[in-house]
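Trying the structure run again after the queue cleared.
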Amino acid sequence: MLSQKNSNPIQTKLSENIETLHRLLPLGKSFDLMTRELLLGTTQAYWLGLNGFCVSEMLEKLFGALQGSHKKELPSRQNEHLFKGSSKENQSSQIENLHTYVESRVGIAQISYTQSLDEALDKLTAGNSVLFVDGFSEAVILDTRAYHSRSVEEPDLEKMTRGARDGFIEILLTNANLIRRRIRSPHLVFEMHSVGQTGKTDVAIAYLEDRADPELVKKIAQKIDSLRVTALTMGAKSLEELLVKRRWWNPLPSLQMTERPDVAASYLTEGYVLVMVDNTPMVLVLPCTIFHFTQTAEDYYKNPLVGTYLRFIRFLCIPVALLFLPLFLLITAYYPQLAEKWQLISTEYPTRGHLFFYVLVVEFFLALFQYSASLSSDRFSGALSIVGGLLIGDMAVSLHWSTSEVLFYGGITLLATLSVSCVELSDALRLYRMFLILSIFVGGVPGFWVGLGLTLLSILTTPTFGGYSYFWPLCPWNGKALVNLLLRTPTAKAQPSKVWNRKK
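Done. Tokens:
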């Protein structure tokens, strides 16, 4: 494989290439840059690699194969086309054909060649090692890398009571292998791209050729190639914001993310496209709809009836997390007769100002508990949430910073928020809920309706990639697909015989 990229060509003289490398790289300054001068017969060579990425055992075999005895390993008659010399008895061992020489001696699986110094440095920073040989205007790219990684374990945010216990990690190749194990199809494609002028992060587009929309795949590839950024500092999250530009009033997620290989494989078989980013233990799913964030693989590891029941509970948690606390505030503050009739408050009736203060304090404490528990160690997060909630809640009531009723309604709201399967969706619901509370505080009953209308407008204008509908299959209407989303159908009917037609 010979690259045609030749913006900064490799020179034939090895000394000129070494001089250029010293000018472009901090050789001698950066401790992780390794160099070695080799002698291939009588031909000089220069090897360059990164310490920590290269496997020592592989390098030892590589150098031994490249500098081994030519007479023992290469009979003169069968391999004399590899070298040019004055006589058969005393050959000068000067390399004549670089490709034939390297491929006959090196047993590494992946070897490529390039005539561009820029591409050689790109491969070097990706962990490969590069070999420059005197007399040749191309370099040999040797895949001698091995990344240090954590074990393939179940992701914390997508734990299941049953099912597979593996999850994506920060190595792109490992993630591709986890998907390939589940989909053994010759139509499965991992199309590689690079993003970032400085970071040069590897990005792979995964799809099934016989199921994915070719127009969507092409559009994703063109969008990724057109990105002009320094680096993807936050991995898949940075790429998500670059692929779909949202306005500040659209907190809902525009792309689905998953850390589970079984979920990713399921999306591929349904015709979706995955975008995988190196150094990121999650993949992006395109195109995306709002119903993606209401599903979980847990439904399919249970009985269909039980899975449907849990799915309806999860759907119910979305309006509860959004409207339960604002409606309590609205009814109690502006319709005290209804609040008294429905026994929403059993203690002494607070004033409207005190009630607003209680709700805001509880909302702040609930967000603080959830945030602190998520950042704490697993050994302390459970105890921190329970003890902190009991202690602070009791003290808040004693100090008249809140009431037991407000704490009760706030606790139900928190449980409903945590029951939403997608973290990004639950965070967006929290922002919408705070906006509704402030709307009631500023405008009363009319303020609530105005805030609710603006919230619905924000939801309806949430952008997604490729011009597809964010509310499919509700709009445009697809009854069969909607039934599959609302009900946990048996496995025989769970996946359509052909990919759904997702109209834009």
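Residues 1-5, 69-92 have pLDDT under 50 and may be disordered. Worth checking whether this holds up in the mutant runs.
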